[in-house]
Structures are given as structure tokens and as C-alpha cells.
Amino acid sequence: MWYYRGLTLVVLVGGEKGGTGKSTIATNLAAELALAGPNCTGVVPYRCSTVLVWYYRGLTLVVLVGGEKGGTGKSTIATNLAAYLACRDIDVVLLDADSQATAARWVERRNSFSPGLPRVHCVQKTGDIFETIRDLSGRYQQVVVDAGGRDSEELRSAMVAADRLYIPLKASQPDLETVINVSRLVKTACGLNPVLRACAVVSMASTHPAVTETHEARELLAELPEIGLSQAVIGERKIFRDAIVEGRGVIECKNSKAKAEIGLLAEEIYGG
Description:
It contains 9 helices and 11 strands. The protein is α/β, with parallel strands linked by helices. Helix 2 runs parallel beside helix 3 (102-113) and helix 2 packs across helix 9.
């Protein structure tokens, strides 16, 4: 049985009869794919069958930006990722699942005030967004989801449909404490969506060299097994606020440091 789920091709090797070599076929297929180059996640037992998940570089990747804490720059990161992709002639859709609609208003300003900029499509949807994500991943090259800052139906349903979850966090104790519960949500979601990979990213970090909070936050986050740690750090820079008001990404502005920060994050997600 072969079918596509956005970026993922799922190969199901199974049947009602045991002892027929299903696991042997699946593990050998995984080895062949690994030698061929794509990043194979391995074999995941599912009832009496074996599920093999194989990533295709260049096909649709659903990137979810969300978490439990508000005011950490989730919409800033989501809109900047969308702008980054659009500037590379990639057909990208931004799914705004946050009732505050920050990302949707950013797209409106972009289309109204700067029609010459590369186009970013936008869809607004709240509640259960699983089917919406599945639909969009079949119609666009890349999907970026802004799920807002709380434990919500939008966040949980998106985690079941996404390929990557990026959790922006300030380098402060209250923010870091919320990621512990997010790690439990990730563990639950991975039971339904084994391709999900979660990563925390330090956001709105102090740009003063004497401040060591970012380093301390990275040390704490490194201890959570369900959540990886992004090598990117997004600084607290006025250009991010200016860009979101203008409907732009910092990649379209003249600030080399902000460009480098978003560029590093985007390259980590999408490759060079």
C-alpha cells in the first residue's frame, strides 16, 4: 500500500499471516533508502504490521510554530519563514490558526501595501485544523502554521498533522517551565504522528553580549528528550517589529544580523 502524506511517503508492509518476512522486507527497504540518500526515520511497529516512513527532500513540509506561552515571537517566526520561502520562488501558504490573526493581518498588509513582493498565500482556520493541513499540504509546496500561544485544539490537532514543531521561547524561567508540559504533548502526538520532530528555539533573546540567559536556557532545554534544540537564536530586534507592520520578512529588509538569524533557522528546517 502506497500513499502520500505531504512530505512523507508511507510504505506499509503487512498482512494477516505472521512469519512471512514482513519485518525483514521493511528493514531491508529502510537500509536501501538510507544508502540512496533520503532520511529514513526507521521502522515503527503498528499493530501486526510495520510502517516505514521515508522523507522526500523538496516535497511539502508542514512546519508548525506553536507552544503554550504567548508573546514569544511565534507569529514573527512564522511570517518570516513564509517570507523566506516566498523569496525563493516557493509556493507557500501560511495557515493562521490563532484567533488574534497576527499572521493573517501581516499577509493583508503585504498584499495591500507591497504588491510587488513575492506572494504568500494565507488561510485562517480555528478549531480542529488537521484536515485543513492535509488539504493545504496537497496544494502548496510548503505549509507554515501559526498556532498561537496556548494549549489549544488548534495546537494539538496541528501536531498530529505536522512534520516539524518549532516552539519559540524566551530565555526566562516562566517560559522554560511551560516547555515541560509541551514535551508531554509532543510525546502523545508522536504516538499518532511518528514523523513529528519538535524543536525549541530561543526567541526574543537579548543582543547584549554580557547577558548569559540564552546560554543557560539552552543548557536546560538540552535535558528534554522529546524536544530538540535549534542552533538558531532569534534576537530581540526592532527590525522584526518594523517588518511585521510593513508586511515584510527581515529577509526583505536591510538588517544583516536579523537576516542571518532567520536564515540559519530556515536552513536548519529546509536545508541550504
